[in-house]
Amino acid sequence: MAATTDYKLDFTTFYNVINNELKSTPTTRTATNPSTLAPLPAVPVSTQADVDAAVSAAKAAFPAWSATPIEERAALINKFIDAIQENFSEFTGLLAAEGKPPTAAGFEVQFTIMHLKASVSLRLEEEVVEETDEKIAKVRYTPLGVGVGIIPWNFPMLLGAGKLGPALLAGNTFIWKPSPYTPNTALKLAELGTKIFPPGVFQALSGEEDLGPMFTAHPDVRKISFTGSTATGKKVMAACASTLKRVTLELGGNDAAIVCDDVDLDKVVPKVALTAFNNGGQVCVDIKRLFVHEKIYDAFLAKLVETVKTFKWGGSEDTEGAFFPPVQNQMQFEKVKDMFAQIEKQGWKTATGGAVEAEAGDKKGYYFQPTIIDNPSDESRIVQEEPFGPILPVQKWSSEEEVLKRANNTDMGLGASVWSSDLDKAERIARKLEAGSVWINNHQDLSPFVPFGGYKSSGIGHDWGIIGLKGWCNVQSLTIPKKA
Length: 484
Ligand code: NAD
Description:
Blueprint: E1 16-18, E2 21-23, E3 28-29, E4 43-44, H1 48-67, H2 70-86, H3 88-97, H4 102-120, E5 127-131, E6 135-143, E7 146-150, H5 158-169, E8 173-177, H6 184-194, E9 202-204, H7 211-217, E10 223-227, H8 230-241, E11 246-250, E12 255-259, H9 265-277, E13 287-293, H10 297-309, H11 330-346, E14 350-352, H12 357-360, E15 371-374, H13 381-384, E16 391-397, H14 400-408, E17 415-419, H15 423-430, E18 437-440, E19 459-460, H16 465-470, E20 473-481
Parallel strand pairs: 7-8, 7-10, 8-9, 10-11, 12-13, 12-17, 13-16, 15-16, 17-18
Antiparallel strand pairs: 1-2, 3-4, 5-6, 6-20, 11-19, 14-15
Helix pairs in contact: 2-4, 3-4, 4-5, 7-8, 9-10
This protein binds nicotinamide-adenine-dinucleotide.
């Protein structure tokens, strides 16, 4: 049996990983722990030369990696998963310092492992699509080449891993570009990768906001898989057009949840509360517009407030089992602060919360009181925009037709849910929702086996599942005559 220390890493120094070498840069930068406002360990600031070196190594590694039998590639990814497991507590601590209480950070590491394990079990089979006496036509899937994952700051490990696993499994080489706000875990994962994968197969580079565009413009990158805001997604797509790179865009959301009048409040309210405030409202598929039937509105709202008040908030230093984090960075803090300022400006009625805790002096980091806005108008900013912070509008509805129209009246279409004890009714409503993921009596019920992507401005293409894996491939139709 291998010694348990084979893959133990030092978590104090951070490097770019290029061609399995750890590389420093003349300039470095630091991200900030949002709960203590202390700087995280310094990371490289990559230049065009670093990008060129990484892309060239990835391109050089591609022929051998793509020719490696899939079972061997899968075995190496499984080894990598074991290596993450070996550094579980270190990754948890680092992820906590990047923005969430240790309990939530531990969940993310666990999900990262689970996600990678599931994606490595997927296989793309060749499909026979036509057969006659003369010929047989098959569809097969071939890897694209150099892939780049551009990752946001809200789930720095999980969202990158959801691209890395399928990309490598399909036979692509992969470069991970983390958000400047959360660069540390990605660099350590790639460092771990140097102990397992051949040079150039898995690399990571950190930098400033000019780094993403260097990858989207690079002629030797064949695919960009991007997760982030809709505004940046549009820039990514425009930049990829000139080289016809494949793009997958996982973008913003403004998820509606429709609660019918027949629900059991004791069962439903805790789930709704959790999936509205999960990660402090900083999940693309958090509930962001909650529609509650007018018959139960008051009772539902009272119970929701009661539940949200029990939630424990904390940061990397938390020892009391907090699950809900501060806002991750100062840029987002300012955006959410502006939304909180609208409470007074627009005269919104709060059912709970309303204050910026960081300013009240209770807590040092980017904390807000979890806030619920009681029945704002459909036109209000809190309903129209994705706040990406701990503030939720709850609105009344009376007829199915009307609530569907309101739920779909948005340019976003990531997730949505229907809550009812009548499953037929719930499904009838669910099928009319314009969103890429629709759940009944649940929200945010994500799985590595289920494709994830958006309608409308919430994205193009999918991550995860067989459809996600196909997104890392060319489609080739191969027509073979039956006689030579
Ligand atoms: P962002 O768009 O600001 O940044 C995302 C990534 O893009 C970062 O790594 C950033 O450095 C990089 N980037 C910035 N400008 C770029 C450019 N011009 N070209 C290439 N890359 C560039 O998003 P964010 O603030 O990090 O994340 C929050 C947003 O992400 C929210 O809108 C949220 O809903 C969305 N999100 C979507 C999903 C999903 O799966 N659909 C998941 C998580 C978050």
